[in-house]
């Protein structure tokens, strides 16, 4: 259920083992291959894709990032995490990864996929023969698919999470009380790395996506209207919050996307009910503060795909039995880091002199303490979570 990175990765793992699989997606193929989403992939996740034959285009085309830059108190501070750890990030926009995964699953490995389906429902997950029903967009026919297992990879608003028995589900949620204005600009990046601006007026970030397109973020009130942010205001705020001494102004360009993201996290426990296994945003959401969401989805997919193959080809249930616990260890590790990093990004704009002072102390420690720098680099790269 769901043709995002998690669902398509699970499907590809199953097809590589000659296991029959059907992927259901409510959007069109064209839509999912163009939808702007994340772009930072951690090195361990790329190696997991490579191991499964799913990273050929990524390895050829992705940018490698080994440095990020914090800007605060009117100065710039380079953080060379590659030198500290020997690891790096890959920058490869999610639409390109989804395009690769769809092609491999449907066109190369012969996997079945239905786009544009409607009225999707999950049935009898507590039995040994669950099923999924949907309406075919071409014919309007109601179809029922009997299954051995259902992988719920349909995101925060999908139907699979709602299929969990409510009396057995706990949703742990955290709301940051802030918003981010997410922007895509037709403009080259103004630096050779990711920029984090920690400013009294609010956080600002720059994340390169391609030579022609750059992702920007601006802290704003939660629920703000993107129309409150015309072109001139956006660029004036970005220039101020990311401006530092001795650095040219940002290269401006046409804004091709503006949307407000309310910063919140949640974790669903259990991630499993009977023959239904959740993965990715259906099971947990981590705000884009630390760029961890797609990486967590891939981690789930590797574990779930491998566990399903072991169960369906050799009768080994151990992977499925330990699936949720193995996923949640990394999930909670990343949630904790996201909370810590949120204070670094947003503390100077909290309107509280004490919080602003402790936030600046954290930032300075990153550049004066080798131990603090090493700990941050491990969490930033995901190498500390060795599960």
Automatic annotation (TrEMBL):
Start and end residues of each FAD-binding domain: 2-337
GO terms, molecular function: 4-hydroxybenzoate 3-monooxygenase activity; FAD binding
Segments crossing the lipid bilayer: none
Name of the protein: p-hydroxybenzoate 3-monooxygenase
Pfam family, one: FAD_binding_3
Coiled coil ranges: none
Sorted UniProt keywords: FAD, Flavoprotein, Monooxygenase, Oxidoreductase
Signal peptide location: none
Flavoprotein among keywords: yes
Taxonomic source organism: Streptomyces caelestis
EC number in record: 1.14.13.2
SUPFAM superfamilies (UniProt xref): FAD-linked reductases, C-terminal domain (SSF54373), FAD/NAD(P)-binding domain (SSF51905)
Tagged with keyword Flavoprotein: yes
């Amino acid at each position: 259920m769901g043709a995002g990175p998690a669902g398509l990765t699970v499907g590809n793992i199953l097809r590589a083992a000659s296991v029959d699989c059907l992927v259901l997606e409510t959007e069109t193929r064209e839509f999912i291959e163009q939808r702007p989403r994340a772009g930072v992939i951690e090195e361990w996740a790329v190696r997991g894709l490579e191991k499964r034959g799913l990273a050929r285009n990524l390895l050829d085309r992705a940018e490698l990032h080994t440095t990020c830059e914090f800007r605060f108190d009117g100065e710039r501070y380079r953080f060379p995490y590659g030198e500290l750890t020997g690891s790096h990030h890959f920058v490869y926009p999610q639409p390109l990864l989804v395009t690769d995964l769809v092609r491999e699953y449907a066109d190369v490995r012969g996997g079945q996929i239905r786009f544009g389906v409607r009225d999707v429902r999950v049935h009898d997950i507590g039995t040994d023969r669950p099923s999924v029903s949907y309406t075919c967009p071409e014919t309007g026919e109601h179809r029922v698919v009997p299954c051995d297992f259902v992988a719920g990879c349909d995101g925060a608003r999908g139907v699979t999470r709602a299929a969990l028995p409510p009396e057995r589900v706990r949703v742990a949620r955290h709301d940051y009380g802030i918003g981010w204005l997410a922007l895509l600009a037709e403009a080259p990046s103004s630096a050779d790395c990711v920029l984090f601006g920690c400013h009294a007026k609010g956080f600002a970030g720059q994340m390169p996506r391609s030579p022609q397109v750059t992702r920007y973020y601006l802290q704003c009130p939660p629920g703000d209207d993107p129309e409150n942010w015309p072109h001139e205001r956006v660029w004036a705020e970005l220039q101020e919050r990311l401006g530092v001494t001795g650095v040219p102004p940002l290269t401006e360009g046409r804004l091709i996307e503006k949307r407000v993201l309310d910063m919140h996290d949640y974790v669903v426990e259990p991630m499993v009910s009977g023959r239904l296994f959740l993965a990715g945003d259906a099971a947990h959401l981590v705000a884009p503060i630390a760029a961890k969401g797609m990486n967590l989805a891939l981690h789930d997919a590797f574990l779930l795909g491998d566990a399903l193959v072991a169960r369906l080809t050799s009768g080994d249930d151990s992977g499925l039995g330990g699936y949720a616990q193995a996923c949640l260890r990394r999930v909670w590790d990343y949630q904790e880091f996201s909370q810590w990093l949120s204070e670094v990004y947003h503390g100077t704009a909290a309107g509280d002199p004490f919080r602003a002072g402790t936030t600046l102390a954290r930032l300075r420690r990153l550049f004066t303490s080798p131990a603090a720098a090493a700990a941050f680099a491990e969490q930033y790269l995901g190498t500390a979570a060795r599960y």
